[in-house]
Amino acid sequence: MFGTFQxxxxxxxxxxxxxxxxxxxxxxxxxxxxxxPFYFFMRQNLFDSVPDNILALAAPIVxxxxxxxxxxxxxxxxxxxxxxxxxxESEEVKSRNRATRLQVIWAVIVQHILQTMxxxxxxxxxxxxxxxxxxxxxxxxxxxxxxLVRWTVGPDAGxxxxxxxxxxxxxxxxxxxxxxxxxxxxxxxxxTWQYFLHRWMHMNKFLYKHFHSVHHRLYVPYAFGALxxxxxxxxxxxxxxxxxAEIVANLxxxxxxxLFAFSTLKTVDDHCGYSFPFDxxxxxxxxxxxxHDIHHQVIxxxxxxxxxxxxxxxxxxxxxxxxxxxxxxxxxxxxx
Length: 336
Known about the structure:
Blueprint: H1 2-10, E1 24-25, E2 28-29, H2 52-77, H3 90-96, H4 101-122, H5 131-153, H6 155-203, H7 205-210, H8 231-248, H9 253-270, H10 280-283, H11 289-296, H12 312-317, H13 323-335
Antiparallel strand pairs: 1-2
């Protein structure tokens, strides 16, 4: 096995530019000079005049209104080529929705004020960012890697692998693997939080009548109505859920900024009223504007609770409904 393991590892050249004679140096590890990936800025704040923690609070608000304005411009453009991508006719927005646009805008402003207040008291000051701090953290990752590899494949094979690939794997874990895993976990957590609270608000008559029915006054969703909710529901479902996701995933301030902005963009896109085949946010998963639109219709109001990223909870718990399911139900009704 050891020979096979050696042959497998030798197949790819190791990282160059190392000043270390050996990755493992007694009880310590030795890493090559620090290389920073393209996405990371080695400075305290992304913008000199705005602290990162304040930018993390502003990012979802800017994302919300920018994305909403884009789709609103499409709504009022009069471009006929858009008609084939509209989920509903334009006149349905006026005739079937039971909330005015002014009511929607004020409700969203209230939610943004509440979420900003929560975030201001919760999102911590960004830690000091420096090359020495990054190297210290990478060394901690490397030491953990040493223990895991030796435990998994044994000391001999483990040491051989670590000498060849230890620096490469440490670099990848620190800059790519761990941050990606944290973000994916935070997305999963947001979906879990929203699925079960959302479903509870539909199954509990009191909660639906007094809270969640506000959102369903928009029978035909549109972009800047994405966060049209009762203030308490919006605070609990969206704001608190995102903050708890940041905690359990142990996100940095900049990762938090990405989570808040990305989840906001996805939520707006899910309510945009268009089913675009070229929309990257709608190509991420089956949870898109058409999927969520079904939930806003009478036939699907007890289905498609998942939001905003994936559909796994609907699929696992039997609450998923597709356009094909709707057509099959209609055919059954015709034949009975």
